[in-house]
């Protein structure tokens, strides 16, 4: 990695502690990713992003700020990036996916909080992630109890705006979410000094839709009998999409899709014929959480799809581009975002429908339902997910894990037994 110490210093980071993180990440990435064979050439871009993860993109965000721009940090796929982009702000994902940050979170949060929340809070308070230092404002949401309380703690250290997400899908809930988006427009306009107009919001909707279309093309390739990309690489593309510039993200994902489509035509697979295909569903896998994909793919199977926020929930469904008034566009945004099926909704039968549909579309031989320890929502919903899969005759394995490696061997044994069951 190039030398970014001056930038990190100016961001007020704890350099000593950050050095420890910088020392372990390349090793983990090398072991998990660079050990794979026959990877698509276009993965070189994503490898480069990881190798410079705390340097290149943070520098771009700082450049944007130097020109008077603002950066918003988000933690959930319900927050509409389009609004921020329309006001001239840049959005960056902030979900923490490393065990490295968890102890920092545990200093202020109960231990029985999910690793994602603990890592996100730890990354901010321990001052070991440039993205968490750069963001001018964090945009939270009322998705789960742990997050709601975490916003209060973070708000002592950084400006936080919380969007009140409805948790049912009745007509009045769509109206309420549209109203929340209108409030969000006001907050972003105040922060940036910019104006969200029908023109700027229309352009932002098209920009983010194009990113969704590009990501969807790559996932479309993962449906093929010839598997042209590993699940690990598919996941990495999605994880980086949360941080990258949306136009560049679309460009790079389209390039990757071009290559994958050619591979399919030429019969180039990264797995031997007959490799069992796994659909992964459950709680999100924030970067650098590659644990499950690595365990599954080094046990002889392929992850072909993630029904997760770091997966299909991020790009499925486009925002209606035909609206020309601000009101119409806000309603269209509300309609699109409410199509997401997070376990924080009740009832959430739409997620079960999604899992069954995706298992068919991606020709999954089996489904692994994964829950991040202490996530009560997804844990409770596991019961209906597992029952629906059983009723549909789809073999399924239910697991719970966290960011540590202590359960890796035990999980490997269970995954291998499950794969044997698939024949
Ligand atoms: S799992 Fe739910 S709360 Fe978490 S990022 Fe996804 S939509 Fe948001
Ligand atoms: S994994 Fe569960 S507990 Fe953790 S932030 Fe997401 S919804 Fe909340």
Automatic annotation (TrEMBL):
Q: Does the keyword Iron-sulfur apply?
A: yes
Q: Which cofactor does it need?
A: [4Fe-4S] cluster
InterPro entries reported in the protein's UniProt record: FldB/FldC_alpha/beta (IPR010327), YjiM-like (IPR047678)
Keyword field: Iron, Iron-sulfur, Metal-binding
MF-aspect GO terms = hydro-lyase activity; iron-sulfur cluster binding
Enumerate the Gene3D superfamilies for this protein: 1.20.1270.370, 3.40.50.11890, 3.40.50.11900
Report the sequence similarity comment from the record: Belongs to the FldB/FldC dehydratase alpha/beta subunit family.
Q: What is the protein's given name?
A: Benzoyl-CoA reductase/2-hydroxyglutaryl-CoA dehydratase subunit, BcrC/BadD/HgdB
């Amino acid at each position: 990695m190039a030398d970014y110490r001056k930038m990190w210093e100016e961001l007020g980071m704890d350099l000593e502690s950050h050095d420890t993180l910088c020392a372990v990440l390349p090793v983990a990435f090398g072991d998990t990713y660079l050990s794979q064979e026959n990877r698509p050439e276009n993965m070189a871009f994503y490898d480069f992003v990881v190798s410079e993860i705390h340097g290149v993109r943070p520098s771009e965000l700082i450049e944007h700020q130097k020109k008077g721009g603002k950066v918003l940090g988000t933690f959930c796929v319900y927050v509409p990036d389009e609004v921020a982009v329309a006001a001239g702000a840049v959005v960056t994902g902030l979900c923490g996916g490393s065990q490295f940050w968890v102890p920092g979170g545990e200093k202020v949060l109960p231990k029985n909080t999910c690793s994602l929340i603990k890592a996100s809070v730890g990354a901010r308070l321990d001052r070991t992630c440039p993205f968490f230092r750069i963001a001018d404002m964090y945009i939270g949401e009322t998705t789960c109890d742990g997050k709601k309380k975490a916003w209060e703690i973070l708000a002592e250290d950084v400006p936080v705006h919380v969007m009140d997400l409805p948790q049912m899908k009745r007509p009045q809930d769509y109206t309420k979410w549209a109203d929340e988006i209108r409030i969000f427009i006001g907050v972003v306009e105040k922060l940036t000094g910019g104006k969200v107009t029908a023109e700027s919001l229309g352009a932002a909707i098209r920009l983010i839709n194009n990113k969704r279309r590009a990501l969807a093309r790559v996932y479309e390739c993962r449906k093929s009998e010839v598997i042209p990309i590993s699940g690990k690489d598919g996941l990495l593309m999605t994880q980086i999409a949360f941080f990258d510039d949306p136009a560049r993200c679309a460009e790079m994902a389209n390039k990757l899709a071009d290559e994958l489509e050619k591979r399919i035509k030429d019969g180039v697979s990264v797995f031997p014929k007959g490799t069992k295909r796994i659909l992964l569903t459950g709680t999100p896998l924030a970067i650098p959480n590659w644990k499950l994909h690595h365990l599954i793919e080094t046990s002889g199977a392929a992850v072909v799809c993630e029904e997760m926020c770091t997966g299909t929930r991020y790009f499925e469904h486009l925002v209606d581009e035909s609206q020309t008034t601000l009101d119409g566009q806000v309603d269209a945004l509300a309609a699109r975002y409410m199509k997401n099926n997070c376990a924080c909704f009740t009832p959430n039968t739409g997620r079960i429908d999604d899992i069954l549909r995706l298992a068919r579309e991606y020709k999954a031989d089996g489904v692994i339902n994964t829950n991040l320890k202490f996530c009560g929502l997804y844990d409770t919903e596991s019961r209906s997910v597992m029952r629906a899969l059983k009723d549909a005759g789809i073999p399924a394995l239910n697991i719970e894990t966290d960011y540590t490696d202590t359960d890796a061997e035990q999980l490997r044994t269970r995954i291998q037994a499950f794969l044997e069951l698939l024949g």
